[in-house]
Amino acid sequence: xxxxxxxxxxxxxxxxxxxxxxxxxxxxxxxxxxxxxxxxxxxxxxxxxxxxxxxxxxxxxxxxxxxxxxxxxxxxxxxxxxxxxxxxxxxxxxxxxxxxxxxxxxxxxxxxxxxxxxxxxxxxxxxxxxxxxxxxxxxxxxxxxxxxxxxxxxxxxxxxxxxxxxxxxxxxxxxxxxxxxxxxxxxxxxxxxxxxxxxxxxxxxxxxxxxxxxxxxxxxxxxxxxxxxxxxxxxxxxxxxxxxxxxxxxxxxxxxxxxxxxxxxxxxxxxxxxxxxxxxxxxxxxxxxxxxxxxxxxxxxxxxxxxxxxxxxxxxxxxxxxxxxxxxxxxxxxxxxxxxxxxxxxxxxxxxxxxxxxxxxxxxxxxxxxxxxxxxxxxxxxxxxxxxxxxx
Length: 392
What we know:
It comes from Halioglobus japonicus. By secondary structure, this protein is an alpha/beta fold.
């Protein structure tokens, strides 16, 4: 007979999901009510307002899609891209490649702007792409590339899109709540994220926001949106702004309790304080890693504080280290992806997992495991370096 599943208590310091706060887990266990219950509709409005705060936007079409970040990505593309369109897609890691897939599945042409993995998107290359393709109606790029730990300049790229009469689609799955993101000020048009990273919520929901210009394009489409479930004109019948809500799908009620609680917690902390916490803990982790003798894969000026790509030392078995960390310390870090597979580790400091305790625990565990492998590291230096950084 199959027994109930009781997972161990892990420390999640990979690329996501991140640790979930006990407050959020507690919210999940509250009584389920109907997805059209007046009290739940009230909660939906609160979630929209909290998401507007986190995205730093007044966009009316700001909602959580009832599916993970990949669905948020698809929602942006299928609503804004039509057959025959030309879309400039920037790729400096894995997730730009997924954007290309979405463009092509919409029946559009993807013009690729490629940069080395670990580098930000080149604004100059994007400018050249618009000059070569004045017909391009959309620019798509990743703010915080989860596969590499590199950050790109949203404000500059969105300004380029606007200067060329194009809309922008921006992936903020790893950035939302962890680093500065100003949707309205920077002029981003369609922005999607995920709940399992810096928002410290459970996986399975994708916050999205659409500018008035993006909404206008959606309303003026000549082709039906290819996804019924993600068609924003249908979804808005359920999410408002009208007082009477039309049934579209059964929302994940308890998951939205959890999202609401995580957003309340972020509001209590304050966005600027959350960003400062992520940066402080990142600097401590880097100080410890470098004191140990490890190096970072991304230049300092382009690094994400919430997703740290670390070069794997020569002669060290990537999978063996990650396995030992999981088995002996209940600590999860991530492997490299794509071109960086086997070359980097990805250490997350996202949301609830971004804490001094986790920084010190990770450095301790990594030093122990690398020492057992005979790696050429400096032992005993990581913790003092990290603690000195935290005090400073």
